[in-house]
Design brief:
The chain is α/β, with parallel strands linked by helices. It has a single domain, classed as 3-Layer(aba) Sandwich (Rossmann fold). The protein is built from six helices and six strands, in the order βαββαβααβαβα. It has a six-stranded mixed sheet, with helices on both faces. Helix 2 packs parallel to helix 3 and helix 3 crosses helix 4. The radius of gyration is 17 Å and the shape is globular. The chain binds guanosine-5'-triphosphate and magnesium ion. The site of magnesium ion has 5 residues, from helix 1.
Length: about 210
C-alpha cells in the first residue's frame, strides 16, 4: 500500500549520459559503463530524497517508489529500439537527454524522432494519432546533462537550448499541448548533495504529475 510505481523511458543520442543517470537514481556505481546496445529495464524500489522534508505526519514521508527505468541505446542506427520501447512499456514519463558539448544537429533529429515515435504509439492512422496527441497526458522532460562541462552555468545551458533546441521543443509542445513539458540542467556524474537534489527533482516532478502530491 505504501509503494507506488514510477516508470520512465530515457532517450537521447549516444554518450549523452542516459545510463549514468539511471545508475545515479538506483544508487549503482558509475564506473564501467559501456554503450547500451539494446533495451534494458532497470527496476529498483527507492525513497525519493524530496520525501525526507515531508512532515512525519504525512504518509508521503514513508512511501516507497518502485522505479522502472527503461534504458535505450543512443546510437543512431539503434534508434528504432526507441519506437519499440515506447510501444512496449507504458511509461509515465519520457526523459530526453541532451549533451550540450555534442553536435546539436543529430540531437535535434533525435528529439524529432522521439516525437514521431511516440505519435506512432497512439494510433496507426496518422490523422487519428495527431488528434489523440492533442489530448494525451504524457510527460516530456528535457534534461540537459554535463553542465559541469559548461562550468555549471545555467545561463550557458539556457543559451544552448534557445539557440538549438527551442524549435524542435516547441513543435513537440504544440503536438502534445495537454502533456507536461519540463526541462532541467544536471550533471549526472556530479555526486554532490546539491546535484542529488536536482536529479531527484526530475523524478519528484514526474511523480507529482502522476499522483498529484
Ligand atoms: N563530464 C561529464 N561526463 C558525463 C556526465 N554524464 C555522463 N558522462 C559521461 O559520458 C559518457 C557516456 O555516458 P553513458 O551514460 O554511457 O551515455 P549513454 O547516453 O547511456 O550512451 P549510450 O548507451 O551509447 O546511448 C560516460 O563516459 C560518462 O561518464 C556528466 O554529467 N558530466
Ligand atoms: Mg547507455
Amino acid at each position: 500500500m505504501l509503494t507506488r510505481d514510477l516508470s520512465v523511458t530515457i532517450l537521447g543520442n549516444t554518450g549523452v549520459g542516459k545510463t549514468t543517470l539511471i545508475r545515479r537514481l538506483t544508487g549503482e556505481k558509475l564506473e564501467d559503463i559501456s554503450p547500451t546496445t539494446s533495451i534494458e529495464v532497470h527496476q529498483k524500489t527507492i525513497r525519493l530524497r524530496s520525501q525526507s522534508i515531508k512532515s512525519s505526519f504525512s504518509i508521503e514521508k514513508y512511501r516507497n517508489y518502485r522505479v522502472r527505468a527503461i534504458d535505450c541505446p543512443g546510437d543512431m542506427s539503434l534508434w528504432p529500439y526507441w519506437k519499440k520501447a515506447l510501444a512496449d512499456y507504458n511509461t509515465n514519463g519520457i526523459i530526453f537527454m541532451i549533451d550540450p558539448t555534442q553536435d546539436s544537429k543529430v540531437q535535434i533529429d533525435a528529439l524529432t524522432q522521439v516525437s514521431n515515435y511516440f505519435l506512432m504509439t497512439l494510433d496507426d492512422d496518422v490523422v487519428r494519432a495527431e488528434r489523440k496527441a492533442r489530448k494525451v497526458k504524457a510527460i516530456f522532460f528535457l534534461v540537459v546533462n554535463k553542465v559541469d562541462l559548461l562550468d555549471y552555468s545555467k545561463g550557458k545551458a539556457d543559451q544552448v537550448i534557445r539557440e538549438n533546441y527551442q524549435t524542435a521543443w516547441n513543435h513537440l509542445k504544440e503536438r502534445y499541448p495537454n502533456s507536461g513539458h519540463y526541462w532541467e540542467t544536471i550533471s549526472a556524474t556530479d555526486e554532490s548533495e546539491q546535484m542529488y537534489e536536482s536529479i531527484d527533482g526530475i523524478f519528484e516532478t514526474i511523480k507529482r504529475e502522476i499522483y498529484g502530491d
